[in-house]
Design brief:
The chain contains 16 helices and twelve strands. Among the domains are: 8-186, Rossmann fold (3-Layer(aba) Sandwich); 216-346, NAD(P)-binding Rossmann-like Domain (Rossmann fold). It is of the alpha/beta class. It has helices at 8-20, 27-34, 81-97, 118-134, 153-166, 193-205, 209-214, 233-246, 268-278, 336-344, 352-355, 358-372, 381-399, 405-411, 417-442, 449-467; strands at 38-48, 51-61, 69-75, 103-109, 143-147, 225-229, 249-255, 258-261, 288-289, 303-306, 325-327, 348-350. The longest helix has 26 residues, at 417-442. α3 links the parallel β3 and β4 (103-109).
């Protein structure tokens, strides 16, 4: 126990234990699912200017119930073994929930990326990748990293290039990492995937009338108010897509430099432009500056989206949370002891390992694309478009009516890669929530969605182990 709060990994284990009693699975099997299978802690030197910096880094493979593992790499000064273990464990359960056939993994490099030049970050990334290759901790059939906090497509491109250099001639080398630039074997839709997944999940959660009535909301996401903590990649795309496709009103935003509020809704793109120009979200025209950035969490709203770092909602501020739904777009933003308070207040907490699974889902699609060596839609797009064109022409001929060019374009469009990716993501988020909800509704002893999500994940993972014949 660290101080007065459990560590991040202890919080994950506590939630695991809470769910395990509802599964009826053998103790030994549960223990195997719970533990981290492999923890690689490393130190390596990198020349930075006239100095040599010794970099602390990690890669954790939590579960090998599938033949390969998957998880992001984060660059942050907060990185430590406990955090990486917790994130790897959450990846295992996340992949199981959305039926992505990987075990969970996670990587971390203990640096502040803002303290290094692009050239220096490239040296650190390539050296970290080399260490992973040496210990067989990376490969399309072994362990597939992805972006996380502090990393992006640029770092993933460096990882791929380093791997391909060491593994010259490996035909599936592009599948060693996901989240790559589109022009370097990446996939369209990956950048906004996590935020889009949050939107699809919220829309599905709020589609159940009886569930919404219990918390005093009307059915559907349209017209609801939202507060976003963290306007990075996930927070921005969650807000932007929710506004444009869900008719949601974002009334509050919190960032590192502070928090703002606007009752009738913020223009997120205008806010992003304001921040780029001024370096801050504060003093945005028409909005009110809040005294403290933490105040945004306590605003009265329908949906609160913590999209920053873990441990943002604690037992200290949980009693003051007024949102009806909390969507954990970040990893572990609600501490275990805080969640008990939120559950008692009747707040629906949509757990991180489900609601932010859009990223790993589309990463899975990217991995499949890399293994197939072909862009999605290339084979069928034109065939489908021609078939729809023939159908529309037949209807026009039989009815004697002519469809306008705009309607014709919509009706005869063949699916491109981005259409197929978004469709697959939407189906994944809808089906995964329905499975979680079925567990929740069918077991009156389960009182919260996180426990239901864990039970759903554990049932799937145990099926893989039992199929291997390791456990009776």
């Amino acid at each position: 126990m660290s101080g007065k709060h459990p560590s991040f990994f202890q919080s994950v284990e506590r939630n695991f234990d809470k769910a395990a009693v509802h599964t009826g699975l053998p103790k030994g099997l549960l223990e195997q699912i719970k533990v981290c299978n492999a923890v690689y802690q490393m130190r390596f030197p990198v020349s930075i200017g006239d100095e040599v910096h010794v970099i602390e880094a990690y890669r954790v493979q939590h579960s090998h119930h599938r033949l390969h593992t998957k998880g992001g790499i984060r660059y942050a000064m907060s990185v430590n073994q406990d955090e990486v273990m917790a994130l790897a464990a959450l990846m295992t359960y996340k992949c199981a929930i959305v039926d992505v056939p990987f075990g969970g993994a996670k990587g971390g490099v203990k640096i502040n990326p803002k303290s290094y030049s692009e050239y220096e970050l490239e040296k650190i990334t390539r050296r970290y990748t080399t260490e992973l290759i040496r210990k067989n901790f990376i490969g399309p059939g072994i362990d597939v990293p992805a972006p996380d906090y502090g990393t992006g497509s640029r770092e993933m491109a460096w990882i791929l290039d380093t791997y391909a250099t060491f593994k010259h001639g490996e035909i599936d080398a592009a599948g060693c990492v996901t989240g790559k630039p589109v022009n370097q074997n990446g996939i369209r839709g990956r950048t906004e995937a996590t935020g889009r997944g949050v939107f699809y999940a919220l829309r599905e959660v709020m589609s159940f009338k009886e569930d919404m009535e219990k918390i005093g909301l009307t059915q559907g996401i349209a017209g609801k108010t939202m507060v976003i903590q963290g306007l990075g990649n996930v927070g921005y795309h969650t807000a932007n897509i929710s506004i444009n496709e869900g008719d949601v009103k974002v009334i509050g935003v919190a960032e590192y430099e502070g928090a703002i509020y606007k009752k009738d809704g913020l223009d997120i793109n205008a806010l992003m432009k304001h921040r780029k120009e001024t370096g801050s979200i504060m003093d945005f025209p028409g909005a009110t500056n809040l005294p403290k950035r933490e105040d945004a969490l306590e605003l009265e709203c329908d949906i609160l989206v913590p999209a920053a770092l873990e441990n943002q909602i604690t037992k200290e501020n949980a009693p003051r949370i007024k949102a009806k739904i909390i969507a954990e777009a970040a990893n572990g933003p609600v501490m275990a002891d805080a969640e008990d308070i939120l559950n008692d207040k009747g707040i629906i907490v949509i757990p991180d390992m489900y609601i932010n699974a859009g990223g790993v889902t589309v990463s899975y699609f990217e991995w499949l694309k890399n293994l197939s060596h072909m862009r999605f839609g290339r084979m069928e797009k034109r065939f489908n478009s021609n078939a729809y064109e023939n159908l529309v022409s037949t209807v026009e001929r039989l009815t004697g009516k002519v469809i306008g060019p705009k309607e014709r374009s919509i009706l005869t469009k063949g699916a491109d890669e981005i259409d197929l990716v978004n469709s697959g993501l939407e189906e994944t988020m809808i089906e995964a929530y329905r499975q979680i909800r079925d567990v929740f509704v069918s077991n009156p002893n389960i009182k919260d969605m996180r426990t239901a999500a864990f039970v759903s994940a554990l049932n799937k993972i145990s099926g893989d182990y039992l199929a291997l014949g390791i456990f009776p």
